[in-house]
Amino acid sequence: MISFSLPYWYDLHAHFRQGTVMADYIQAHINMACAGILAMPNTKPPVSRVTGSAADEYWTIESYLKDLRASGGHVFSDIIVPLYLTQDTTPDMIRAGTQSGYLRAAKYYPPHGTTNSDHGFPLRHFMENGVFSAMEETGVVLCLHGEEHGLTGSDYFDQDTNAEDVFYTRHMPVLVQKFPKLKIVCEHITTRTAVDFVSAQGDNVCATVTPQHLLYTAGHLLQGFKYHLYCLPLVKFNADRAALRDAVTSPTNTRFFAGTDSAPHAVKATACGCAAGCFTGNIAPQLYAQAFEDSGVDLATKNGQTLFQRFLCDNGPRFYGLKVPDKRFTLKKTPSPVHILTTREGTDITPLPLGMGQDTLPWTLER
Ligand SMILES: [Zn+2]
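# zinc ion complex -> structure
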């Protein structure tokens, strides 16, 4: 039986929400051998201040971190909470935040682009008001949800264009030209356009890739409308998935790394739409391993295992300056079942493969 060990890894993009259920979502990340997490700030209310106590309109990074730790996150060797960039974010907030030690990253959401992104503000605003300058100067990482907002339906998703394509061709060249030293993570990229853009940049520009964008295409979403695969950015075409697979499995990959974008939704589809986000807590390394094999990587070989380790365990921590832990876990090529997560509030969260009709994973994780 194929079996290999890896250092504990960091999920550098995940959602843990707020309230008592946070503990269930954090436990799911502990179960999959995470050394640490980057916990997204699109909570209710958003994490839009750095220090002090939470208020009715916002969390602070300091207060949200305290909650994450109290909900079981104290076992992680590190937790990064990015600041949600809103209309109220100022260059002074970035400088003072860096001084405080709490501010290490900040998140750009396109206005109204995805779940709880109502506080997002256009990219141009932060290019002009000094916020990105302050981040470049202080080394605060910009986490980017790279999709253009406010497009018509036919520009939003079509054969030769989509919201991510538009964002990476219209805005990103300007951004990197104006702020050449800004550290940027292009999050959950889905297109050949984004892969090509990131590949053409220097070491200060990296990208995260989710399991779902490596495994599936728009056809999987549409065949039987599998709404558990509905996430933003949307899964794309074969050529896009092939570009993502090439990037993450390349022998020269140093800048593409794991960030699951795992997002729990107790209610996915409603009468007026569908919540965006796939839940991959408990099982992300197994899904990534499945995706590497689908990409033609032989995980029975040392070479294949090295490529996988770079993507899952090495590249992300190096970029964020996190310690790769000594502690290790094992992946075994033996089937394991996928379970619904029932939270302490009694809600059920359906993990992605179950929503796709797959109730067994080809890999088992042991820690
Ligand atoms: Zn996300």
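# post-check
Residues 9-326 form a domain with the TIM Barrel fold (CATH 3.20.20.140).
The first helix runs from residue 22 to 31.
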